[in-house]
Amino acid sequence: MAINNKVKSTNDLELKDRLVAINRVTKVTKGGRTFSFAAIVVVGNEDGIVGWGLGKAGEVTTAISKGIEAAKKNLIKVPIYKGTIPHEQVSKFGGAQVFIKPATHGTGVKAGGAMRAVLESVGVTDVLAKSKGSSNPHNLVKATMVALGELRDPAMVAQNRGISVEKVFKG
Questions:
Q1: I need a labelling partner for 155 at 20 to 30 A (CA). Which of 11, 56, 66, 170 fits?
Q2: Helix (H/G/I), strand (E/B), else coil: 141
Q3: C-alpha span between 13 and 105 (Å, rounded)
């Protein structure tokens, strides 16, 4: 089920960027090898909005700035309930599979490198996360973003069922 939770405007957001991975790539030409860089960047306001981007350039700083601009173009809104996510979610992208689960207050962000950057950027303070399969940062970031995009807001679930938000979590 695809949920449309794209953020419309980025003008009034204070976005913080995190560099997830930087990769040196090589193109072989008849004149020799040409090196360039690919940077995966995650941006978020640590209050429910997050996006990722990939920047490629001949220099590291240029690749990072291109990644930040790309990340600002595909922001999504994620429901956060009391510092954690509302429910468990499993998601897959390519060879990477991720599992995120809500945690009690004080647990912290128990997640690996690429997943940690995404979860901290979105503003989750307590979550348990596990990645299976490929540890490729590109696919882990994308799988985590898909999982966060599929999360449902407790208020919307309660409204759809016709019950209170407290009953959603107790039922």
A1: 11
A2: helix
A3: 26
107: enclosing H helix or E strand? none
Check if the beta carbon of residue 40 is closer than 8 Å to that of residue 47: no
Q: Mark the ranges of the chain whose per-residue pLDDT is less than 50.
A: 1-2
Partners of 93 in beta bridges: 96
Burial zone of 73 (CB within 10 Å; 0-12 exposed, 13-18 middle, 19+ buried): exposed
Minimal CA–CA distance to 36: which of 26, 45, 46, 28?
26
Closest CA to 129 of 96, 95, 82, 170: 96
Query: 């995966």: which residue's tokens?
Result: 40
Question: Which neighbouring-strand residues pair with 22?
Answer: 39
- Spatial CA neighbour of 55 closest among 98, 20, 16, 103: 20
